[in-house]
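Fold these two proteins, one after the other.
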Amino acid sequence: MKDSGRFPVRWTACAALLATLAACSEEEDAWRSFDGPIDVAIMMPNDILDVPVGFVSNFRSSKIVKMDLLHDTPLRDRMEGSWVRSMPIATGRDRLVEQIAFASGYVDASDYYITLFASDSTRDMLLVVPYLDTKAEWGPACIPAAPDCTPGEPVGDLVCGPQTGFIPRTPICIPELEGQAAVAEGGLREGILEVLAPDGTPTGYTVTGFWVREGKTSTETWTAVFDAAEGHFVVRGSRSGVQERVPTVGETYWSDDNEVEFVIQDGGGSGTLPDGAYVTFSTDSGIREIPMPGVIQDLRVAPDRQRLFATVQSPEDLEEGGTIARGYLVVLDLEPLAERELPAVEATWPLCGIEPDESGTCPVDARPMAMDLDATHDRLFIADASDTGVIYELDLAQPEGPPLALSGFLPNLDVAYVEDLESDDGYQHLFVANADVGSVSLYDLEESRLVDINPYTPEVDAIELRSPVSGLAASRVAVTIPEKSSDQVPLSTILVGATTYKGDLWAIHGENGCLMFASPEGAHLDSSGWQWSDRGTTSNPQPDVDLETGRSVVTHPCGGVTRGETWFFVYDEALQGYRVRASRSNKSGEFQDRIAYEDERFVSDGGEVSVLIRSGTLPTTDGDTWYFTVDSGLRPVSVEDLPSDFEIYTQGYGDRTEEWTTVYFRSLAIVPATLSDAVYKINLAKPNLSDEAEVIIYR
C-alpha cells in the first residue's frame, strides 16, 4: 500500500480480502470531507472546468462536496490559490439531501454557469443550487470579505471578514437587513436588528455583528426566541433546525455549524426580556426550492442540458384504508437557467405498470426508482420497484405522454443501458437490478426479451450476485480486461458495474452478462487438486484431462455460473455411477439430477463443471468418493460499508513507451460508501486482488 501524500489514500496491492483492507495502515486526514455520501454526479472537462469533477451529496451534513477526479484531490476552485482548501456547498443541516445532478451553460468567458440540483427528502423539494455563475448578483447586503486583509481591518467602507481573503463563488446575503442604517454600502459588515416582544414592541435589546460563511451558510430564515423559564434564547434555522448552542447577552454567538454569527446586546432597555421575545432574519446563498409531488428517487439531466427528469414517489391514503404508492416522472425545463431564472415544471407524468382505470387513476402501486439514458440519448429508461414488474421507456424526441411500460420483469431498483452497434454481433442491452433477490437481469431491447445467462438450465437465468443490488452503472467505451480469447488475445468489452449491500463492486460484460474474471484462468480447479477417498476394497479410477483445455475440470466460460465450492462424486454400486453434489449449489445434502458414469463425460445440471473419470483396473466400490474444490475466478472490489448509487466515466491515457502515444481508455467508477464516510475511485477492469488493482479511497 502507498500513501499518496494528498487527501485520498491510495490502495495499490493490499493482497487480501476485506479484513485485510481494514488491516492496512492508513493516515487519516484530520479534516474529513464526507458525512454520509450517498450520490454522485460527474461533470466531464468542458469550457468551464478542465478536469472531471465529482459532485457528492452527503445526507447527514446535507452538504455537497466537489472532487477533482483527475488529480485525486478536493477540487481546487478557490480564487486565492490552488493551495486553499475547497469549501463544500451548504444546503442546511436539517435537510435530507440525497439525489444530485447538474447543468451547465457556456457562452463565453464572461457568461457561464454551473447549477446543481439536489433532492430534499424531508420536504419533498427539488433544490436549485448555484455553484459558479458569472452573472451572480452581489448587492449591498451580500459579502465576500475583501481579499488579502486581516480580520477586523478596515478596507474602504468595509471591514475584513474572519476568513482571510475569502471570495464566495455565489453571493451569501442577509436580505432582511437591507436598508438598515448601519449596513455599509457595497457589502454587509454591520447591521442592527431590534429584539421584539411577542406583541411586536421593541424591548431595548439589539442584535449586531452579523457574519455568514461560505460552505456553512445556506438560504433559510433564522429565529432566536427568548425562553424565560430557561433564561436564554433558543435559536432555530428553518433549514438547519434547532441549535444546541444558545446565545448569551453581550457575547458573540455562532450557530452549531457556524452558519451565522451575531451578538445580542442590552441596548439600555429595562434589563428584562419577556418570554417569547424574538428576533428574526434571513440568509440567502442563492439556493431556491421547487415543490415536488413526493420524495425524489433519482435525478437525470438530458444531454442537451435543456431538461431535468425526476422520478418521484408519493404515498396516498385510500378511502377504504391503507395507502397506495403514486409514482411520477417530473420534467423540468432548464432553458430559464440561461437567463438565471428558476427552472419551470414542464410536465408531471403519472406512472402506472398497467392500464389506468376509467378515471385515469392507477389502481396499483407505482414505485419509480433510478433512471438511465441510452447511448444516443433518445430514450430514458426508468426502474420500478412495484410488484407489477415493469421498466418505463420514454421517447425523448416525442415526450407528449407518459412513458411506455415494458412488462415481464421482477420488481427492480436500477437500470443501466449498454450498446455496441459497430461489431458484427451488435447489441442494445438493458441491465436491470432486481429488488431484494440479489440478481441482475439482462434484457435485449432489439428482440424485446430477457436473455438467459445460462442455457444449461430450463429457466431464464439472471446474473447472480447473491446480495441485494444497491446500484448499477455502465461505461460507454470498450476497455481491455484481464480475460483472453481462445487464441490468447486480451479481450475488450464494455463493462457494467453493480454494487451490492454486502459491500462488493462487480464488473459485468455488457454483451453477455457474464461477470468479469480476475485473470485469464477464469474459474479453475484450486491448488489442492482432486482428492480420493477409497471406502471399500482398493479401487483405482482416475480423472482424465480435457485435450482442448488441458484441464481435468472444465468450468463454464461465463463468469458467475461456476461458483467457488467443493464438488463430491460418491460412487453408488446400485447405479453403477457417481451421485454428485456441490457444497453450495446443492443445499441440504441434495444431489444433482445427473449421474456421473465412468468413461463418460459428466456435465453438471447447471453446466458449472464438466469432468471425465476413467475406470481403473480395479472396480470402484460403494461409497468411494472423488472430491475437488473450484475457485470461481471472481474478485469483486470490496467497497466497505453500504455502497450507494454510483457513476462510471471514461478516462483516456497514453502509452509513453511507444514512439507515438497510443490512446487507451479506462472505465472508472466513483462509488460513495455511505456508512464508512468514504468515496471510492475504482478502475473497473482491475480486480481487487490483482497486483495492478487501482482503488483510491477519498475520506
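Now the second one:
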Amino acid sequence: MMKFQFIVGLLLLTLVRISASNFTQNVSLNVKNMSLEQVFKIVESQSGYVFLYDGVNFKKQRVSLSVEDTPIEQVLETCLKDLPVAWKIVDQNILLKKDENKLKKTEVVVQQARSTIKGTVTDDTGAPLPGTTITVVGSTRGVITDIDGKYVIEVEPSDKLTFSLIGMQSQTVEVGNRKEINIVLKEKVDELQEVTIVAFGKQKKESMVASITTIDPKELKTASSNLTTALAGRMAGLISFQRSGEPGLDNAEFFIRGVTTFGYKKDPLILIDNNESTSNELARLQTDDIASFSIMKDATAVALYGSRGANGVILITTKSGKEGAVKFNVRFEESISQPTMLPEVADPITYMNLHNEAVKTRNTLGILPYSPTKVANTLDPNRNMYVYPATDWYQMMFKDFSNNHHLNFSASGGGQVAKYYVAGSFSNDNGILKVDKRNNFNNNVELNRYTLRTNVNINMTRTTEVIARLSGAFDSYNGPRSGGSDVFWQVMNSNPVMFPAYYLPDKNNEYTSHILFGNATSSSGTTPIYNNPYAQMVSGYKEYTISQINLQFEFNQELDFITKGLKLRGMFNTSNYGYFDISRGYSPFYYNVGRYEKGTDTYILQSLNEGSEWLTFSEGPKTLTVTTYFESALNWARTFSNKHDLGAQLVYTMRQYKETQTEGGTNLQKSLPHRNLGLAGRLTYAFDGRPR
C-alpha cells in the first residue's frame, strides 16, 4: 500500500510540476553562423514555446552559439544582446519586439501597404477569450488578445490570420479590405466522435466494413455500481443474464452472438485500454471514466486478436485530459435495492398436509410426520408460538430493501504539452439480511469499493507522445460465512413448523448468555439434524479483501522523417491482483421443547448439543496474480490523389500470467507462468472514401 501511495504521489507531483512550470525549460544548442530564425525554430522544437514577432527580420541576423542544458532566458539574452530587440515570455509564447532604446514599449515598423486590423475573440456563448494567439499565416508575426478578448494587429490585404487557443478549434480567415474581424471559437470536437475504435487502432466511421457496435457511455449509467449489469438490452447481438444480486457476486454473464468455443473460456475478450482484463475489472470500471465502448462481433473485426477473440471482443478506452482549464465533475447517488420477484411458498398448514400426503402415497403404512393434533394446534391463533411454530423464514431473516451509496469525482485539463485526467470513486452496497442485536458483530452483506484512476498524456516533442495510466480498485467485503446466496437457499429448504428460529429462555435458562436456537432430532436420536438457517446466518461472518492495481505506459512516435504516415506505438502494462479472506464464528447451541405444560403455558427446554460462546478464526485462500503485457505496433496510412486510402499495420503482443495460491498447497504446474506471443497484421484500401 505504501508503494502504491508513492507511485500516485509521484505521478501527481509530476503533473503539478508540469502545470506550474510555465514552460520554463533548458535547451541545448551547438550552431555556427546560423540565422536567428533557424535558431528560434530549434528552440521551439526543444521547449514547446512559440516565437511571435512583428516588424523584425531575423533571417539576416546570424549567430554562433554552443550551450548545454541552459535556461531559455539566458539563451535569449545571449542571442539578442547586440540587437535592438526586447523580449517577454507570456504563457507558452515568446514575444519579440523592436526597441531601439531597449524600452518595454513595442515599436511597430509600419510598412507602406499595411493597415491596422482590430477585433474581439469570443466563445459560442459570447464570453471573451483572453490569451488567444493571432498569427499571420506564412510568417511568425502575431499578437495575443487582452483580458477582454480584444486585439490589434498590422496586416496586408493579402494576409490570412489564424486564431488559436488551447482547447478550442483553430480558425483561419482572410483579411481583405476589412478593418475589424470578430471571431467566435468553438470547443475542440472529441476525436472519438469522428472515428471508431477498432483492433489496435482507430478507423473512420464511413470506411467501416466490420461489425462493430459503439455505445455512448452515457447510456451505461444505471443505479447499479456494477457496470456488467448495464449491458443487457443496449446493443444487438449481446446476450446477458445475472445469476445473483448479492453485492460482490452480482456480475452479469454475457455472450456476443452466442458461444463459438467450448472449454475454459466462453465469454468475450475484454480489453480496457488495450490490456486484457477480467469481468471483475469490467464490473469495477466507472462509467464516468469511459471515453469509448465498442463491441466487436464478427471475424473481420477480431481477426487481429486470433483465437482469443473467437467469442467477440469488448474494447474500452478510458478518458484522457483535454486542453483547457481544469474541469471538475462530482456525482453522488443514493439508491434502493430490493428483490424484484420472490418464489411463492406454501403456508404452514398446507405444507404439513402435503407432506403427510406425500408419505401416504409412497407407504400407506408409513408414520405421518405431522399428527392431527399438531396440525390442529398450529391452526389455533392463541397457541404458544414456540411450541407450535409456523415460521416464515424469509420474513424472519430478510429486510424489504437496502440503501446504497455511490460517489464519483474527476478532474481534467491541461495544455499543449501535458493533459491529465484524475478520478476516484467510492461505492457502498448493502445486503438485505437482518442482524441479531444480541451479537456484537454485523453479519449482513456490506461491500465497500474504492477506485482510483490517473491518465497523463505528455507531448515530449511535436512528434512524440508518452502516456502514463495508473488505476486501482479495492474491495472490502463483510457478510455471512456461507454467502448471501447460500442463506437464501437454506431459507427455501427449511421446515417452517418443526421448530422456531430461537426460544425465549425457560426457568432453567434465565441467566444463559447465548441464544437458544431451535432444532429437532430424529425419533431415534438426540443429535440435531435439521437446518436452522437463522442460526447459520447469525453465528458468524466472513471478510475478504481484493486489491487490483494496473500500471501502464504507452509511447507514440511519428516517423514522417522516414515516410509520411508512418507511426510507431509501444505499450507496457503490469497488473497485480490480490485476494484473501478470513471467517469468524461460533458453534450454535440448539434446543427443543422437552416438556410442555398447556395449563400454565410453560415449557422446559432440552439441550441438543454443546456449542461455544466465543468466535473462532479460520483463514481462507490467499491468491496473488501478476500479469505482464507488452504490445508494439507499426502503422502506416497514406492518401494518394485524394481518392486512394492505403493502410497497413503490424502488431506484436506478449502476455505473461503467473498465479500464486495457498489453498490446497502449491505444485509445480501452478508455479509456472503462462505466456502467449502473437504477431498479426492488417492491410486496408479505400477508394474515394469507400472501403474495398
